[in-house]
Each structure stands twice: as structure tokens, then as C-alpha cells.
Amino acid sequence: MIRRMQTLDTRDLNITSVSVNQQPTRFTLGSKHSFKGTPLDITLPFDLSRGQQVIVEVAYETSQSASALQWLTPEQTAGKKQAYLFSQCQAHHCRSMVPCQDTPSIKHTYYAQ
């Protein structure tokens, strides 16, 4: 069996709920670090077996200070009519846009809406 706790990296995200395989589950936010952000600790509602796949859903909002999300004003764009949002996830910025395992050594797929 594999541990029943999963930790994701976050920074300045407003976490409203977490579910695992459509089961609501407990979560806590750890102590905030100046640039690393805040760990999101998720208590899995069941034990895992090696190779078992799970779907973790995190409902959250980003903040205006999200370093991974940047805006160009309409005046800064080619058409000069609409603002433009772009993301920049190098270094440790991704955790300000999506709760994740923000390290090159761990890969996972995700879907955001």
C-alpha cells in the first residue's frame, strides 16, 4: 500500500474543495513560504496500490498576483482592441496558476477548466 497523503505545490491560490475519484476529501494548506508558496496536503479517502490511477479534482481560483499569468493591455497587442493573457511557467511560477507537483522529476497529466 502507498501512503494516504498527497502534497501539491500552490502559491496564492484560493482552494475551495478537493475530491478524489469523485469522493470529497479533506485537505489542509501548510505554512506559506516566501517564494515556494503553500503546500496543499490532500488526505486520500482510501489506500492506494502501486500502479493504481486516481483522479484528483481541486476547485480553486488564482489571484491577481499569479506570477505565471500575465496580461498585455489592448494597447500592447497587434489589434489594439482586446487584452491578451499568457502564461509563463518556468522556474516555480506554475504553482501560482495550478496546484501541481512543480518539479521536472515528476510528470502528470491535468485538465483545467
Automatic annotation (TrEMBL):
Residues 7-110 form the Aminopeptidase N-like N-terminal domain. InterPro entries: Aminopeptidase_N-like_N, Aminopeptidase_N-like_N_sf, M1_LTA4H. Pfam families: Peptidase_M1_N (PF17900). Transmembrane segments: none annotated. It comes from the Eukaryota. PANTHER family: LEUKOTRIENE A-4 HYDROLASE (PTHR45726). This is Aminopeptidase N-like N-terminal domain-containing protein. It comes from Goodea atripinnis.
